[in-house]
Fold:
Amino acid sequence: DAGVIQSPRHEVTEMGQEVTLRCKPISGHDYLFWYRQTMMRGLELLIYFNNNVPIDDSGMPEDRFSAKMPNASFSTLKIQPSEPRDSAVYFCASTPGQAYTGELFFGEGSRLTVL
Amino acid sequence: AQKITQTQPGMFVQEKEAVTLDCTYDTSDQSYGLFWYKQPSSGEMIFLIYQGSYDEQNATEGRYSLNFQKARKSANLVISASQLGDSAMYFCAMRERGGGSNYKLTFGKGTLLTVNP
Structure:
């Protein structure tokens, strides 16, 4: 079975440009998470969805960040306009939910560099 | 206050020896879960082991075991018979139920383990 799929794996862009990161969760998983990893702040939860509905977006840094989940098999994280401090690895993860222990299944990450 | 504290930024161990990676947590929930993940230099996050707060026995998965001391709020990872491939960053994480269905994990800062030949 395919794991969580993220694209692009690497993105280099210039300050001010729009960045869109994409994620396909594991089929049948009800929960989808976006995390950001930096050396300074570690792994931070940005937002998570349950059945395509955003449940907690308290980790989204500011209005430049937005996330959507139009259907059960696709989510996007958009940064507009991007800034150098947004440079990080962005992970998408999913989990089945319900009675499950809650292990998160992570994608390979999208490494973003904003120049 | 930090929810998950990993006090060892880096650890070294000789191949074939055992090593303990420390993790303490802070929660007022009675029902919670504790996780360990491994992140090799290639960057992916690999789930290693899970311990539920109501589990009476320490979790084990192959060479990994979790030393769960509930009263001390610690969940240390023990890796037995270290291998060179165990060199990686290790993250402790917690899931708090919060009275409902909450599946988000809070991660510690990680410990970088280096296994020496």
Notes: Chain B has a mean pLDDT of 94. DSSP finds no helices and twelve strands in chain B.
